[in-house]
Each structure stands twice: as structure tokens, then as C-alpha cells.
Design brief:
Chloramphenicol Acetyltransferase, six-stranded antiparallel beta sheet, mitochondrion, acyltransferase, 13 helices, PSBD, binds oxidized coenzyme A, 3 domains, Dihydrolipoamide acetyltransferase component of pyruvate dehydrogenase complex, seven-stranded mixed beta sheet, about 30% helix, transferase, single chain, alpha+beta
């Protein structure tokens, strides 16, 4: 999800890269242990990034152990199911320890790194001064202090079904090893580093030790054994990042009864107009695809059928008609599916919509879509036709009540009024609507009006202000 917001108050400094609406973070310093008379090593706690996020994945370290880092320098990029966030230091100091490997799950509130700072830096008095500048900064506390080890313990307890440390998980990942196969010898079934190393050394022996061998009860069984076929083991991967978001949103959508409606749109006229305007747009530095026309046509049709730009309250007692047409566009990005939205489409020209779509696409490619771009959508379009297909069954983006999936434009043989075969370009359209709120007839009328704009793009001229 997008972001380009740098929260840089006295106590925190974040570059939001995706998702969360208003992320603030704190970097908490607590007294830890003194290394010499004027230096001390303190844990740098992973900030609360809001939105109820309790765990994040460490995507990238910008620093390594031994580095001297300065205030505002980026130390790590982390990813939650809502946002990618760059965390930066508010202190000068030397990195003593990174508490996680890339790919590990870090807990909010637990140490992210250990850093050696000047004794005065993290003193209660200096932290107190920070607090007065920013309500998000926690004051240094003298209670028992968590360290990297605490982070590992937390990660160990809370992540997945295999009990082990991030370091062990890292070794397993590097060796493409499924940890469920490794006989665990640690307390409460923890997989220890030695377990993994010894399994890697001799997987067959370990495996035979792990699987209890049934007792041979008859000579017949021993003599009639068939030759064994080599098998490929299963691989497990933790669910992370955008996939977690997809699971959450799709689960929410399954609770809503979907009504589907599909139709064909003849787009030959649209193709001609687009090819003319494409050059004009290019002169203004804008790439003009079919989407801006499709999006604008949606907005024009929504003016007539505002129920499709609404949402039902959670207690199902009210319908909220949204004032703006914030049209979400499903994007296939290197990080996965993201749905930024184009704000106030009702007030934008086709060229302005195209420019905004270009901007969102570019940010999506770079993994830098901002929270503001991702929130507030009122209606969604998914142009899966850039990849292929005809019809689809789109799933609503709750609490929106309508979504449209566009198939690939294809040249097709059709019949004219005299039964002559005429080649035409057809765009296949699949709508889904929340059937609690939208009835089939309304959906069909909306689709007909939308289709009329696209089949006769001259109508845009009449409709636009
Ligand atoms: N049929 C045929 N050609 C199409 C088309 C369609 N349905 N849609 C777009 N095209 C063409 C465009 O016109 C463009 O051609 P030109 O280079 O001649 O202009 C080319 O394909 C590439 O288009 P694009 O992808 O750059 O731009 P777009 O505005 O059409 O689409 C976007 C933007 C973000 C919707 C698209 O890139 C994308 O990510 N689509 C996938 C959406 C997706 O994953 N949906 C599934 C969601 S549910 O899991």
C-alpha cells in the first residue's frame, strides 16, 4: 500500500510505504546496560505503528552491526498486513545487535536493535524532554529491560506452530528446509539450531528417528515390501504481508451475498477515439489506456444510480450514500494485489483520471503507494483483461457494494441486421453487487448506461461539464 509520508516528530520517524491510514511510531529507549563510563547499550523498541498492528515482517535492514548511525537515518523497513514502514533512528550511536534476520516476524514493543549511545542520550531527563515535544514518545523506564533475546523469545512463542528462534528459521529457509520434518529436542518441542544442523547433515537418519517404525508382525510383510519411490516433501511458508490482508478482506466479503451480472461491450468506437486521444495525452506526458474511459463511464452512471456508490452500516440499519466517486483500481504489483483509488472521479476529466492512474501505477510498481491512495474507495474496478480472460467472478471490497471485472478485449464475429458476419471488438464485463442493498434490475440498468457511454463515446462530450 502506498505511502510517502514521513512522520518525523521528535520521537519518531517513519516513512510509510503502504496501507495504514495514519501511522505514527515511537522509538522507545530504556536504560539497559552501561559499556563504559559515558556509553550505554540500550534496546531500540519497535514502535507502535497503530491500526492495532502487533507484528511486522522485517523486509530489509539498512544497517549492520558495528555501523555508526545517526538521528533520522533509516534502520529498517518492516511490513505489516497494512503498510510498509521505514523505521529511522532518533539517536546517534553504534549498532551492537540486530535482533532479527530479514524475513523474521518482529513484535511491536519488543527490541528491534541494540544500540550503544552516549550515556546522556537515553537518560530519563533527555527522554523526558522528548516526551514534552511529542506525545508519542515513551519515557525511559528503569524497569527490567527487554533485549534482542526477548524479541527472539516472543517471536518464538508467537509465530507459526513450530517453536524455534528466528535464527533457526533463517537457517531452515536458506536451506529450503521444512522445519516440521526436523526432530525437535528442545524444551516443549522447540527446534534447536543443533537439531537443524544435524538434520541437514543426515536427513535420512533424522527422519527415520522422527517417524516411529511400526513393529514387524509377520515375516510376510518384511518379504513383500515394494520398491520405494522417491518423494518430494511438502513446503510450508508463513502467510505474510499482503496475503494476510487478502485473507482478511476476502473472509469479510464471504459474509455478503453477491449478485453477479455479466455483459458484452462493443468497443470499436472507443478504440478509435482512444487511439486519437492517445497522442494528445502523450504530448502532455500521460499514458492513456482504456481504463480512464471505463472509470469515467462508471462515475457518470453512478450519478444516475448512487446506490451503487454506497455502503451498508455494520448493524445493517443504514445505507451511506458516498458523496465522492473514489474509484478503486485493482493493481497487479510486484508485491501483490493492491487497490488504490482515484479520488473524486466525478470532478475529473478523462485525462486527469489517466494522469492519476499513471501516478498510482508507478507508485504501485515501486511499492510506494501511500495510505491516502489506498483508503476511502467507494467502488472498485479490476481490469484482469490486461492479463487475459473473458468473464470473472469479482469479489466485493467490503464495505463497497459493487465491483466490476473487465476481461480482455477480443475481436469476435458478430451478425448485423442482415445476418452478415461482422468482426467487432468485444470487452467482457462482469459485475458483482451486494444483494442486500442492490437488486438485479438496478445493477442491469446501471450496466446498460455505463455500456452506452463506452459503445458511443460521443456521449461523454454531452455528459461532461
Ligand atoms: N483488453 C485488451 N487490452 C487491454 C485491456 C483489456 N481489457 N486493458 C488494457 N489493455 C491494454 C492497454 O490499453 C495497454 O495498451 P497500450 O500500450 O496500447 O496502451 C496495455 O494493455 C497495458 O495496459 P496497462 O496495464 O498499462 O494499463 P491499464 O490502465 O489498462 O490497466 C491496471 C492498469 C493497473 C488495471 C493493470 O495494469 C493491472 O494491474 N491489471 C491487473 C488487475 C488485477 O490483477 N486484477 C485482479 C484482481 S483480483 O485478484
Amino acid at each position: 500500500m502506498v505511502i510517502n509520508k514521513k512522520v518525523n516528530n521528535f520521537g519518531s520517524c517513519l516513512l510509510m510505504k503502504s496501507g495504514a491510514a495514519s501511522v505514527t511510531a515511537t522509538t522507545t529507549m530504556r536504560n539497559y546496560h552501561t559499556t563504559n563510563s559515558n556509553k550505554k547499550v540500550v534496546p531500540f523498541l519497535l514502535a507502535d505503528i497503530g491500526e492495532g498492528i502487533t507484528k511486522v515482517e522485517v523486509v530489509k535492514w539498512f544497517i549492520k552491526e558495528g555501523d555508526h548511525i545517526e538521528q533520522f537515518q533509516n534502520v529498517a523497513e518492516v511490513m505489516s498486513d497494512k503498510a510498509n514502514v521505514e523505521i529511522s533512528s532518533r539517536f546517534d550511536g553504534v549498532v551492537k545487535r540486530l535482533c532479527y534476520n530479514v524475513g523474521d516476524i518482529a513484535n511491536v514493543g519488543a527490541p528491534l536493535i541494540e544500540i550503544e549511545v552516549a550515556d546522556s542520550t537515553a537518560s530519563p531527563s533527555s527522554a523526558g524532554a522528548a516526551t514534552s515535544s511529542s506525545s508519542t514518545v515513551e519515557v525511559a523506564k528503569t524497569t527490567s529491560t527487554p533485549s534482542c533475546a526477548a524479541s527472539s523469545d516472543i517471536a518464538e512463542e508467537s509465530f507459526g506452530k513450530i517453536l524455534t528462534t528466528p535464527a533457526v528459521r533463517r537457517i531452515a529457509r536458506e536451506n529450503n528446509l521444512d522445519l516440521t520434518k526436523v526432530p525437535a529436542t528442545g524444551r516443549n518441542g522447540r527446534v534447536l539450531k543443533e537439531d537443524v544442523l544435524s538434520y541437514l547433515e543426515n536427513p535420512t537418519k533424522q527422519q527415520s528417528e522422527k517417524v516411529a517404525v511400526p513393529e514387524q508382525t509377520s515375516t510376510a510383510t518384511t518379504t513383500t515390501s515394494t520398491p520405494s519411490t522417491p518423494t518430494v516433501g511438502d513446503r510450508r511458508e508463513p502467510v505474510r504481508g499482503l496475503m494476510r490482508t487478502m485473507i482478511r478482506t476476502m473472509n469479510a466479503a464471504t459474509k455478503v451475498p453477491h449478485f453477479g451480472y455479466k455483459d458484452e461491450v462493443y468497443v470499436d468506437n472507443l478504440m478509435i477515439i482512444r487511439s486519437h486521444l492517445k497522442k494528445t495525452a502523450e504530448r502532455q506526458g500521460v499514458k492513456l489506456s482504456y481504463m480512464p474511459f471505463i472509470i469515467k463511464a462508471v462515475s457518470l452512471a453512478l450519478k444516475e444510480y448512487p446506490i451503487l456508490n454506497s455502503s451498508l452500516t455494520e448493524d445493517e440499519s443504514e445505507i451511506i450514500y458516498k458523496g465522492d466517486h473514489n474509484i478503486g483500481v485493482a493493481m497487479d504489483t510486484p508485491n501483490g494485489l493492491l487497490v488504490p483509488n482515484i479520488k473524486s472521479v466525478q470532478n475529473k476529466s478523462i485525462l486527469e483520471i489517466a494522469a492519476e492512474l499513471n501516478r498510482l501505477q508507478e507508485l504501485g510498481k515501486q511499492g510506494k503507494l501511500g495510505a491516502n491512495d489506498l483508503k476511502g474507495g467507494t467502488f472498485t474496478l479490476s481490469n484482469i483483461g490486461t492479463i487475459g480472460g473473458t468473464y470473472a467472478d469479482p469479489v466485493l471490497s467490503i464495505p463497497e457494494v459493487c465491483i466490476g471485472a473487465i476481461g480482455m478485449i477480443k475481436k469476435t464475429a458478430t451478425f448485423d441486421a442482415h445476418n452478415n458476419v461482422v468482426p467487432k471488438h468485444i470487452m467482457y464485463m462482469s459485475w458483482a453487487a451486494d444483494h442486500r442493498v442492490v437488486d438485479g434490475a438496478t445493477m442491469a440498468r446501471f450496466s446498460n448506461l455505463w455500456k452506452e457511454y463506452l459503445e458511443n463515446p460521443d456521449n461523454f462530450i454531452v455528459a461532461l461539464k
